[in-house]
Automatic annotation (TrEMBL):
It comes from Catenulispora acidiphila (strain DSM 44928 / JCM 14897 / NBRC 102108 / NRRL B-24433 / ID139908). It is an enzyme of class 2 (transferase). This is Glutamine--fructose-6-phosphate transaminase (Isomerizing). One of its GO terms (biological process) is carbohydrate derivative metabolic process. Residues 35-177, 199-338 form the SIS domain. The lineage of its organism: Bacteria, Bacillati, Actinomycetota, Actinomycetes, Catenulisporales.
Length: 348
């Protein structure tokens, strides 16, 4: 990494995402279908998702998918109940899914081992075949993103999203065909980088940023906020649109920069009252989403139309990754190697 120019590695890995998505749809799909058959046979009554950081946002996306598409109750793990308090819940008939780029964090491994010992069906979704989490799990899926060298996760995030979507789609009897257009669409979105460069100039000297969305897009703003904070060190606060109205809206005024994600579908429709309130507050509002929602904003980035809402997060994060990159570069920082970060976080 020391021989690369600042930002070179992150930019390259952002650009690799269409190829990664294509690889998953071709090479990864058979293994995903096999895992889905094993899960179907187990007939889980509940799903428990375990993750940290970027992968936690991917798990949050999976929570929406499983609850909406499968009608399966889903919870997100509080790993300290296992690692600090040594809880041993009864996990019979529970799908215990761990999502991790590296599969190496000690708390992820410990929780997975506990889940397996307590009767859960354990499934690891990682980018490192043979990782400790994979070894601790009964089933595993490789997201096939290839080595990710920049510290901020980009291609592994969208690879996790697509892998999780294909898993859920297979569980409901789908063939994955709704995702076939994603690699080409992703390439088209990334090719519009000049639009993002213009947007990034708005935040070069910002002191804070608020991001908001609802539904499937909520994990997107959580991930975008994380990317912005870890690369540019700009405080970025992600809120569900509903939660934003329950108090935090008070901190928004006519000089407050706000980024909203409002794609086509129920989530974008549910966000409309929030967008109206932001307009009333005079916020500097940038919208990533449908042409209809972007039209009413201060500025924005229009996403391709006609995409199923549940697949939209795979596309809508792309300009936000580029936004984090360009805000960071405009501040004279290196997004490849943010301070105080490591690729494998040793949480216990």
């Amino acid at each position: 990494m020391s021989d690369a120019k600042p930002g070179e590695i992150m930019a390259r890995e952002i650009a690799e995402q269409p190829a990664v998505l294509e690889r998953i749809l071709t090479e990864g799909l058979p293994r995903i279908r096999e895992a889905a058959e094993r899960v179907k046979a187990a007939q889980p009554r509940f799903a428990l998702l375990t993750a940290r950081g970027t992968s936690d946002n991917a798990a949050y996306y999976a929570k929406y998918l499983m609850e909406i598409a499968l009608g399966l109750p889903v919870g997100l793990t509080s790993m300290s109940t296992t690692t600090a308090y040594h809880a041993e819940p009864d996990l019979r008939d529970v799908l215990c899914l761990t999502v991790s780029q590296s599969g190496g964090s000690p708390d992820l491994v410990a929780h997975t081992e506990m889940a397996k010992a307590r009767g859960g069906l354990t499934l690891a979704v990682t980018n490192v075949a043979g990782s400790p989490v994979n070894q601790a799990s009964e089933l595993s899926l490789d997201v096939l993103a290839g080595p990710e060298l920049a510290l901020p996760a980009t291609k592994t995030y969208t690879a996790e999203l697509l892998t999780l979507w294909l898993l859920v789609d297979a569980l409901r009897g789908g063939d994955g065909s709704a995702a076939k257009a994603l690699p080409e669409l992703a390439a088209g979105v990334l090719a519009r980088e000049s639009e993002v460069v213009d947007l990034a100039q708005r935040y070069r000297f910002a002191s804070r940023l608020v991001l908001t969305a609802r539904g499937y897009s909520y994990p997107t703003v959580r991930e975008a906020a994380l990317k912005i904070m870890e690369t540019s060190y700009l405080p970025a606060h992600a809120f569900s649109g509903a939660d934003l109205l329950h108090g935090p809206l008070a901190m928004v005024d006519n000089v407050s920069p706000v980024v909203a994600v409002a794609a086509e579908g129920a989530g974008g429709t549910a966000l409309e009252p929030v967008l109206e309130r932001l307009h009333e507050r005079g916020a500097d509002l940038v919208v990533v989403g449908s042409a209809e929602h972007v039209a009413g904003a201060t500025a924005g980035f229009v996403l391709p139309s006609g995409i199923p809402e549940e697949l939209s997060p795979i596309l809508e994060i792309l300009p936000l990754q580029q936004l984090a990159y360009h805000v960071t570069m405009s501040r004279g920082l290196n997004p490849d190697a943010p301070r105080a970060l490591a690729k494998v976080t040793q949480t216990h």
